[in-house]
Amino acid sequence: MFRKITDFSIKRPKLILTIAALMVVLTLSQFYKVKMDTDPENMLPHTAPVRVAHEAMKIEFALYDMIVVGVVNNKHPEGVFNVKSLGAIYNITEEIKKLDGVIAEEIISPSTKDNVEQAGIGAVHFNWLMPEPPKTEEEALHIRSEAEDNPMFKGLLVSEDGKAMAIYVPIRQKDISYEVTLEIKKIVERYKGDEEFHYTGLPVANDQFGTEMFKQMAISAPLAGLVIFILMWVFFKSIELIIAPMLVAMVTVIVTMGLLIGFGFPVHIMSSMIPIFLMPISVLDSIHIMSEFYDRYPDFNDKGKTISFVMKELFTPMLYTSLTSAVGFFSLSFSPIPPVQVFGVFVAFGVMLAWVLTITFIPAYIMVVNFGKFERSRLKNQEEGAFILNKVLHWLKVASIKHAKMVFAATILLVVVSGYGISHIQVNDNPVRWFNKDHSIRVADRVLNEHFAGTYGAYLVVEAKDKTAEAFIHPEMLTYVEGLQESMMASGLVGKTTSLADMVKKVYYELLGGDRINNVIPETKAAIAQSIISLENSHKPDDLWHLTTPDYSKVNIWLQLKSGDNKDMSKVVEYVEDYMATHPAPMEISHQWAGLTYINVVWQHNMVTGMIKNFLGSWIIVLFMMLFLFKSPVKALISMIPLTVTILVIYATLGFIGKDYDMPVAILSALTLGLSIDFAIHFIERSVEIYKEKQDWQATADEMFKGPGRAIIRNALVVSIGFLPLLAAPLVPYNTVGFFMFAIMAVSGLATLLLLPAVLATWPDLLLKLDSSAGCNKGHCMLTWSFVAVVAAYLLLGYTNVGLQTVIYVVIGILVASVPLCYLSANRKGCA
Amino acid sequence: MNKIRRIAVIAISFVLIGGGALFAEGLTANEIINKANLASYYAGKDGKSDVRMTITDSQGRERVREFRILRLNIKDGGDQKFYVYFTEPADVAKMVFMVWKHPGQDDDRWLYLPALDLVKRIAASDKRSSFIGSHFVYEDVSGRGTNEDDHQLVGSEGNLHKIKNTPKDSKGVEFAYYYVWIDKANFIPMKAEYYDGQGKLIRVVEALEVKDIEGIPTVTKSHAKNFLRGGETTIDFLGIDYNVGLDESVFAERYLRRAPAKWVQ
Q1: Can you say whether residue A515 is alpha, beta or left, with left for phi > 0 and alpha for psi between -120 and 50 degrees?
Q2: Residues A284 and A723: beta-carbon distance below 8 Å
Q3: A756, A767 in Cβ contact below 8 A?
């Protein structure tokens, strides 16, 4: 049926081109609706329990997302603690207060925070840390000593080395942080002297990422397109010819993105990468056509006949390579992460669209365009360019066929080494690390985390079961909180923790005369209550309610981490959970983690477990598709070898070079699966076809290392080199895509051209012999049933709560049942 | 005769009403403020009241504090002494807060924390900090020095004078200016609105209920709302009594630890 579509396209090329143009215009008109979403929090649905809890605690404890403005002065011996720098900080704070979207009341700055200090003998003083800019250097230094003396400020407001300061600017919504940061930068320009200013905080990173991601979408994808274009020109030396794949890629990208936007989906970090994924996939099939067309044209000397012949030859492999890629991506729609679902579905759609375009648009295009130049250029090319390619092919042929055993041995060794490498993969992510090392965000992150206790925030909310007990002003409960904080610090990954216990201790020892001996939790509940009420006489009594609730039934422990790496946050959580398990609280409690750093941990955990599950599922689906395509379980298994080796090698490389398994890597597993199978499909399909003609495996192998082999190498080169420019992009996920494209193409190309010919040479019958229908071969029949058993095991383990033992029984049951079934089936009359 | 009497009554009424109005019109902003200061903070020679303070935060969570407040005028419009004795919540019962108010200079403030067995002087260079976590600041409770602002009579709204007050020194003050509405008859300030430098309303303090107590117009319910912090505080004054015969010796440091039973029971 589909073959007829191709024939139709050859007959009515103009109609096809018009339809394509119409689709582009229609979808392009949707682009104005584009909405961006750069919030990693949206990796979880709004209804995810951790997000609901996080939102609730933000309201309950009046917490906001913050932009961190770090002020460092490397020129003055006392750092920022000099008249000029503090004056600048004062004025900047005053101006920031006026900005739209800033919660002025909650800004953390020396001039907006109250301090308890000794004021002569027997008196305490509640005063702003910096009520006005200092007039003398002594006053400036006094501000430092007061700030350093307040455990609430040290490491937060004033750096641990006493040289730098930070202003924390709370904002109404995260998505304005980029604009607010720009406004703050303008203010800073007006007042700054010798100081350096750094801007960080997760909201800034997220928002900045969105801005840059938009740029990259406009730069990287077209740049990759350009390089692919140049490479194709090197191979085919005909602009007219190579414009076709480029057009297919462009139409695919525009229509897919247009639909995504048109359906009202925001362009998320994930979906912004759709163009870059669709680009290689959509040119792949066209390159096969072009490559064959280019090689076959002299045999026919007629465009129509050549393209018709080529399309017939390539139709089945192209359909299956597209289907496998689409399935790989579609499997992402089962992941628990909404943006990944959207990404998966739309890329899968794009892949199939590219296929439809390839079988309609390409023939139509070839019919319409005048190839005068093409004929001349191809003669010239035959002499030079193909020479190197042929040499490589020859080398591959010798290696695989003459030294098949070596190839197998090397493969086994590689798989073993890869297993070791994979065991070293670190699952980790950190949105700030999505920027390159020298990006201003990363620099700020480094500098500020050197000076301060940590710019990554997380919260642990502890709640007493008994709401009426005023639990957390009981000394034993506050002491328990203190113990929790100590356990956090003992993890070695937390720079600072702040809780009600710290606040109470501070005011208590100041009331008792400022002697640090009294930096302890008061002995009675009344003493704690009275310390707290004393503190409420400050300018900012509500600061208390960031750390507890007015009924004292809950406390909020604020953790500052120097690293936003998920693995570090996970370790802290593990550490504290262990502590809680071994140290029961004096009253019954429950607890809940929150904060952006923690939310990242949750979605990443979902992502990793979800992705591994999807990945295995897709592997099995692809296996079944191969079974369907080749009608032989043996061939299906063989076709999976290069793909499996490729995946093992790529992930082992990640393990060896210490690249974290992060979100982009997880997504790329789908791409790896979809693309790595392609070459094997082409190889096996074509060898079977050729063998039908030649009836000799040697001759088949010779033929395979001509046209089809050349197409595979051309493809591998075009795509792998085409994506190398991504390695220079300032966003790490783009680098990762570049690396993966290169690795997928290089490794799966090599694996296909070495391993499959080696199989061909060693056991030609396995690949080439026409199978009697699977039902008539007992062995094949039982192998097929064992696939079924694997699927059953996967489904039961992955999607039900059935135990391992039951699963094993099911698998054994299927295998045992297959014996009589296959015996009967193979002995029925229809089988020879 | 009747006619003459009627004319006379009208004439007298005119003088009383019209003349009264003329008289008020004749007052300067400073005079109004001084009268308001006396009416709101210096009524009687002394006074005592039980106070119930309800603090509601921006999330609607309520906390209640109860205390007895004793006040003695040393000089009308001048020095005063306050003794605040806490009764609720139980954990802060017997806590005492004492102020010797010296208009024009820093007050003396003491805090007695029974659970810490501690009497502490609190330096009070700044009177704009919160009064025990409520939306009232110290100056709302003990009065803002009348000399600290420039006063300007900006209008009359019904039976209220509207006066704009601009601090002479903006240092340590969170507002740029404030309006106060003062009752023309009894000079009780009925409302004050505080604005920041951008003209944004940041805080409102209001008298919700004024009663005649022992012949003295007295605010019995008061309310403060802070738009920056969010939330509000309501104060109910109960059992107000004037001229109870308070002795200056009650307001001594030694009475902080051992509250004078006569006055706090």
Answers
A1: beta
A2: no
A3: yes
As a whole number, mean pLDDT of residues B216-243 equals 91
The parent domain of residue B168 ranges over: 15-241
The model's pLDDT over A101-112, given as tens digits with 9 standing for 90+, comes to 888 888 888 888
What is the value of pTM for the model shown? Answer: 0.81
Q: Is there a contact between A535 and A503 (Cβ–Cβ < 8 Å)?
A: yes
Given a cut of 70, whether residue A187 has pLDDT beyond it is yes
Q: What is the mean pLDDT of chain A?
A: 84
Measured CA to CA, the distance from residue B82 to residue B251 in angstroms comes to 7
Strands A123-128 and B118-123, by their bridges, are: parallel
**CA atoms within a 13 Å half-sphere pointing along the CA-CB vector of A643:** 32
- Residue A446's Cβ-count burial label (10 Å; 0-12, 13-18, 19+) is middle
- Tell whether B120 is covered by a domain: yes
Measure B91 CA to nearest chain A CA, in Å.
5
Amino acid at A236: F
Token digits of residue B105: 């200079």
* Candidates B91, B128, B171; nearest CB to A526: B91
What are the tens digits of pLDDT across the range A484-517?
Answer: 999 999 888 898 999 999 889 888 888 887 778 8
* H or E element at residue A197: strand A196-200
Query: Does the beta-carbon distance from B91 to A545 stay under 8 Å?
Result: no
Beta strands A65-72; A164-171: pairing state: antiparallel
Counting Cβ atoms within 10 Å, is residue A829 exposed (0-12), middle (13-18) or buried (19+)? exposed
The conformational region for residue B243 under phi > 0 = left, psi -120 to 50 = alpha, else beta, is left
Q: Which amino acid is at B42?
A: Y
Q: Which residues pair with A198 in a beta bridge?
A: A70
pLDDT band for position A461 (cuts 50, 70, 90):
very high
Find out whether A71 and A89 touch, Cβ atoms under 8 Å. Answer: yes
Residue B225 contacts by C-beta under 8 Å, 6 or more apart in sequence? B135, B203, B204, B205, B231, B232
Contacts 24+ apart (CB under 8 A), A94-99: A95/A187, A95/A190, A95/A191, A96/A167, A96/A169, A96/A184, A96/A187, A98/B198, A99/A180, A99/A183, A99/A184
CA–CA distance, A731 with A435 (Å, rounded to integer) = 5
All residues of chain B having their beta carbon less than 8 Å from the beta carbon of residue A522 are: 115-116
User: How near does any CA of chain B get to the CA of A124, in Å?
Assistant: 5
Instruction: State how many domains chain B has.
Output: 1
Q: Is residue B2 part of a domain?
A: no
The counts of H helices and E strands in chain B are 6, 13
Q: Is A623 left (phi over 0), alpha (psi -120 to 50) or beta?
A: alpha
**B261 domain residue, yes or no:** no
Contact (Cβ atoms closer than 8 angstroms) between residue A711 and residue A389: no
Q: Which of A103, A113, A114, A530 to mutate to test the interface with B (most CBs of B within 10 A)?
A: A530
Where do we find the tokens 């692919």? A228
Is B126 in the A-facing interface, judged by CB distances under 8 Å? yes
DSSP A304-364: HHHHHHHHHHHHHHHHHHHHHHHHHHHGGGGSS-HHHHHHHHHHHHHHHHHHHHHHHHHHH
- Nearest to A642, CA basis, from A712, A747, A727, A544: A747
Place of tokens 């073993």: A416
| Residue at B78 is within a domain | yes
Residues A155, A495 contacting (CB under 8 angstroms): yes
The answer to whether the CB of A118 falls within 8 A of the CB of A124 is yes
Pairing of strands A267-268, A36-37: parallel
Which ipTM score applies to this complex? 0.86
Q: What is the CATH number of the domain that holds B152?
A: 2.50.20.10
